[in-house]
Amino acid sequence: MEIALGQGITVSSHQIVVDGTTTPLTHIWLDGDSTLGSSAKVLYTEAPLTANTTYRVTIDGTTSAGSVHFEWAFTTGAASTGTGRRG
């Protein structure tokens, strides 16, 4: 999942959980670089997400105007049937 938070934000904490729980999923956080661009922020889980499951993401940080808090939920779709061919 890629999120566009904009320039000038210093992120102090980030997490993704199964909605209704408090245990953070192991994830990777990328905070801008020469490949992504200096304002890019990317969060993705190390393990695949479970089908038909709601997840909640929270990100806290600061800007020159003060503290910011972002929070949203999303639900994954049905599992793939695996009938596609590769190659």
Short recap of the structure:
The protein has strands at 2-3, 10-18, 27-33, 37-45, 54-63, 66-75.
Secondary structure layout:
Elements (H helix, E strand, L loop, with lengths): L1 E2 L6 E9 L8 E7 L3 E9 L8 E10 L2 E10 L12
Antiparallel strand pairs: 1-4, 2-5, 3-4, 5-6
Mean pLDDT, all residues? 85
Proportion in β-strands: over 45%
Total individual domains: 1
Q: What is the radius of gyration computed over CA atoms, rounded to a whole number of angstroms?
A: 15 Å
What's the SSE pattern? EEEEEE
CATH class: Mainly Beta
How is the largest sheet built, in terms of strand order? 1-4-3
Low-confidence stretches: none
What is the approximate shape?
A: globular
Q: In percent, how helical is the residue content? A: under 10%
Tell me which oligomeric state these chains represent: single chain
Helix/strand-derived class? Answer: mainly beta
| Distance between the ends | 26 Å
Which architecture would the CATH scheme give at its second level? Answer: Sandwich
